[in-house]
Amino acid sequence: MKSPPRISLARLPTPLEPLTRLSEAYGTRIWIKRDDLTDSVASGNKIRKLEYSIGQALAEKADVLVTWGGIQSNHCRATAALAARLGLKSHLVLRGSEPSERDGNLLIDSLVGAEITFAPPERYQKMDNTYNELQAEYASQGLKTYRIPVGASDEVGLWGYINCANELKQDFESANIAPDAIVSATGSGGTLAGLIIGNALHDLNSRVIAFNVCDDEVYFKRKISKDFSLWRDRYGSNLDIDQLPIDVIDGYVGPGYGRATPKVFETIREVARLEGIVLDPVYTGKAFNAMLQETRSGQFEGMSDIVFIHTGGMLGLFPQKQALFGSG
């Protein structure tokens, strides 16, 4: 199998920690993989994927990283911060109108010098057109662009969590556990897809489960199946991708992407007060709340160890602080 270009950017390995008090409260031993500690400014799961996306960009001698996301996109913030670290330019196309106040991730985007285009939904969806325009604009300045998809979730970015699965295998051996399930949020599919492939390649023998924070189960199965095929074709793997289970548990999106229910904020407060760990309302708070609800209802009955992947996102709390301490 071909080896992709990679640049070391994350602080790895991240720790695997037991959530002792929460485990006692819910009757299942819960562990957390602290991928919120991959960095400070560029923290979270995106940096693992960007090690490969930016590695490919540098191999192609790119000067400008172009990517997309919501106004509070963790991925865009990580891309912008890493571009600044490496002396590259970044151009972010953010879905929505420019807010009156720059808070959370958007504040960091601006601080590290990203070029930002705010795009209404109809323009945001026309990513090919936008990229072609930006590519031509930068080419006129003698600069080469590299396109990174939403969440760095493509066949290149998959390597981030394929590699993480190998790290998890070492974590499990050190902790002397054989987890029945590895759980994460999924918003663009790359983390989940990488974990599924990594679970198979590194013989973790765990059930990989994700709770979607947008779209639905059908969308993610279609998206991830496509990424599996692109990954196999690009890197020459003989893994039987058609037999890989894509396990997405639907029903916890709530009012929509980036919008959480009062129960999610309650879970964020509970985890912070019991364990001193901060989740976010867009990804980890929703997924962790869903995991606890599934545990309480008996859906995970018989599982002795569950590992939750903390994908970061704490900066997303700040624009929603009123809901966190208000009525929700």
Number of domains: 2
Structural class: alpha/beta
Query: Taking Cα atoms only, what radius of gyration do you get, to the nearest Å?
Result: 19 Å
How would a textbook summarize the main sheet?
A: 6 strands, mixed
With helices defined by DSSP (H or I, 4 residues minimum), what is the helix count? 12
**CATH-defined topology of the largest domain:** Rossmann fold
CATH-level-2 architecture of the largest domain: 3-Layer(aba) Sandwich
Unreliable parts: none
Strand order of the largest sheet: 1-2-10-7-8-9
Please provide the ordered H/E string of secondary-structure elements: EHEHEHEHEHHEHEHEHEHHEH
Broad shape = globular
Give the mean pLDDT: 96
State the helical fraction. 40-55%
Strand content: 15-25%
Provide tags for this entry:
single chain, 328 residues, alpha/beta, Rossmann fold, 2 domains, four-stranded parallel beta sheet, 10 strands, 42% helix, 16% strand, globular
Model description:
This protein has 328 residues and is an alpha/beta fold. The chain has 2 domains: 16-44 and 154-325, Rossmann fold (3-Layer(aba) Sandwich); 46-152, Rossmann fold. It contains 12 helices and 10 strands. The protein has helices at 20-26, 46-59, 74-86, 104-111, 121-124, 127-139, 159-175, 190-201, 217-235, 262-275, 284-296, 321-325; strands spanning 16-18, 29-34, 64-70, 89-95, 115-119, 145-147, 181-186, 207-212, 247-249, 305-310. It has a 6-stranded mixed sheet, with helices on both faces. β8 (207-212), α9 (217-235) and β9 (247-249) form a beta-alpha-beta unit. It is globular, with a radius of gyration of 19 Å. The chain starts with 15 loop residues before the first strand and ends with a helix. The model has no long low-confidence stretch (mean pLDDT 96).
